[in-house]
Amino acid sequence: MTATISPSAFQIAKPNRVLPTFARVTSAQLASIPAKKGLPIVGVLPEAARDPYAFARRMYEEHGPIHRFYACGNWNLQLVGPEANEFVLFDREGNFSAYGGWKPVFGRHFDGGLLLRDGADHKWHRKLVATAFKQEQLQHYLGVFCTNISRLCSIVAGRTINTYEFAQKLTFTNGYSAFLGLDSSKAERTDLLAFRYLMRSAAAIVPFPFPGNAQWRADWAKRHVRRLLGTVINAEPHEDRTDLAAALVRLKMSGGLSEEEIVAHLTFTIAASFDALSSATISTLYYLARDPVWQNRVRHELLSNIASSATIDLAELQRCEQSEWAVKEALRLNAAAPVLWRRALRDTAFGGHSIPTGTVVGVNPMLTHLLPQIWDEPARYDPGRFEPIKVRARHRFAFVPFGGGAHGCLGANFASLQVRALLRNLLQSHELRLVSERPPQWYHWPNCRPVGPLPIELCPRA
User: Fold this and answer.
1) DSSP type of residue 126
2) 84: domain range?
3) Per the CB 3.0–4.6 Å rule, which of 51, 157, 335, 434 could disulfide with 365?
4) Which residues contact 462 (CB under 8 A, 6 or more apart)?
C-alpha cells in the first residue's frame, strides 16, 4: 500500500508563504489591563521559567483572568477561561496569527512547521501532513505501537521504572518508526536527545549559545536532526512505505515540496508528538498508579474488549471509552501544552478590553482545566468527568489539551491510541504502584514533565 498523498493534488495550488510583520505594542496601549513588568529587559522571564505553573497561578489570582506581563521584548496578554479559548483558538474572524505567537518560542528551530504557518499556506501544508493521521494510517500505527511496546515492556517487566525515561523512549521510538519508516531498534540515544533538546530550547532564558547551555545543545541538536533526516529524504522510498517521510519525499520528487519544507515538517511533527505524548503517558501512568480503583476499571475494559496486546484492532480500542476518559483526565490535570500563543493581526477586543494589532496573546489551558467554577474538586483525579452527558454540560472549550480551531493538533487520536495500547500491554500482567506517596513536582513548559525521577513499580499479577 502506498502513502495516501496524490502529488498532483498538492503541487497545483500551493500558495506562497507570506510572513506577517508586527509593530511592538506599548504598555500605554494596554493600560486598562492589569500588568506585571518584572526585571529590566528580561521582564518576568526568569520567574516564569523557574516555575511556569506557580507564576501563571499567581498572575491569575492577583490580576484576574485577563492580565499581561513583560517578557521576550514584548508585552504578553494572557486570557484564562473557556470563552477565551474559543475566542482565540476558534478565531472566527481571523484575528490572530499562530506564526506571530509562536515565533519567539519555537521560531529558532521549528520555522516552517505547521505551528508557524498561517492562512492559506497553513491550510495547504496541514492538508498534506494530515494524510499521516488518516484512519487507515492509524490502524497501521497500532501495529507499530504494539511491536515497540512489546519490546520495551519485556525489558522492564516486573521492575521499577523511571517513568519519564520510559515514556520518552517509547514515544520517540514510535515516532521514529511511524513517521520516518525506520526500524526503531536502530534509533540511537543521541537521536532522542536531539529532539528533546530542541523542545527544551523553548525554555531557554539566554537566546545565544555558549558551551553547555540550552541554546548550545539545541544548535547541536538541529545539526544532528538534519543529518538523521538527510539519510531518509535523499533516497527514493520503497513503494510499500506509507510513513509521512515517504509521502513527503514522493511529493518532493514531483516538484511539490522543497527539501527544507520536508525537514521542517518532519522535525516539528516528530518533536511535538514525541514530547507532548511522553507527557500524556507519564501523567496517565502516574494517576492510574495512584488510583487502584480506576486502574482496575481500565484494565477490565481493555482486557474484555481486546483479545491480545500483540495485535490490536482500531475498532476494538475505540470501544474502550473508560480508558480514553482516564487519559483525558490525566491531560486535564497536567496539560501537555500549558499555554497556546497567538499574535493579533488586527485591532480586536475581549472582555471589555481593547487588543491592538501586534499584541502577543496567550490562552492558558493549564489553568482553565483547573478552574473550580468549571470542575468540581479540580485537583481530584476522576475520569468520570468525561462521560458524554457531563461533557455536553460543559463549555466545549473548557477542555482543550490539543488546542482547537484551524491549528488544533492533528495527532490527538495518534496520542490516545498509543497510550491506551501501552495500558493494554502493561495492565494485563502488572499492577502499577507508586514507590513513594509523596506527590511529584511537575514542570509545565514547554510540555509537562516531573522534576526528577518519578518511579513506578510494575508488580507482576497472577
Assistant:
1) H
2) 7-460
3) 335
4) none
Asked if residue 450 is part of any domain, the answer here is yes
CA 20, 25, 31, 37 torsion-angle sign: positive
What is the spatial distance between Cα 429 and Cα 363, in angstroms, rounded to a whole number? 41
- For residue 278, is pLDDT > 60? yes
Question: Predicted confidence band at 12 (pLDDT cuts at 50, 70, 90)?
Answer: low
User: Which range (44-53, 82-91, 235-244, 388-397) has the least confidence?
Assistant: 235-244
Given a contact cutoff of 8 angstroms between Cβ atoms, the answer to whether 33 and 356 are in contact is: no
Q: Is 220 helix (H, G, I), strand (E, B) or coil?
A: helix
CA distances from 222 to 75, 190, 202, 215, 229 (A): 29, 12, 14, 10, 11
Q: What is the CATH number of the domain that holds 230?
A: 1.10.630.10
The dihedral through the CA atoms of 362, 366, 369, 374 has a sign that is negative
Burial of 131 (0-12, 13-18, 19+ CB in 10 A): buried
Q: Which residues pair with 349 in a beta bridge?
A: 354
Q: 3-class DSSP state for residue 355? A: strand
Find the mean pLDDT for residues 378-407: 96
Angle at 436 between CA 434 and CA 437, to 5 degrees: 90
Residue indicated by cell numbers 485537583: 379
Cα–Cα distances in Å, from 108 out to 52, 215, 228? Answer: 21, 10, 19
In a domain, 2, yes or no: no
Q: What is the pLDDT of residues 139-169, one digit of tens each?
A: 989 999 999 999 999 999 999 999 999 999 9
Q: Could you tell me the pTM of the whole model? A: 0.94
d(CA 179, CA 188): 16
Which pLDDT does position 1 carry in this prediction?
42
C-alpha cell read off for 221: 541538536
pLDDT band of residue 352 (cuts 50, 70, 90) is: very high
What whole-number distance in Å separates Cα of residue 154 and Cα of residue 121? 44
pLDDT level of residue 239 (50, 70, 90 thresholds):
confident
Give the DSSP H or E segment for 53. Answer: helix 52-63
Contact of 341 with 102, CB cutoff 8 Å: yes
- Strand bridging mode 430-434 / 455-460: antiparallel
Q: Write out pLDDT tens, residues 288-304.
A: 999 999 999 999 999 99
**Mean pLDDT along residues 217-236:** 93
- Percentages helix, strand, coil for the chain, rounded to the nearest 5? 55, 10, 35
The answer to whether position 129 is within a domain reads yes
Would 1 be classed as within a structural domain? no
CA dihedral sign, ordered 202, 204, 206, 212: negative
Average pLDDT over residues 328-347: 96
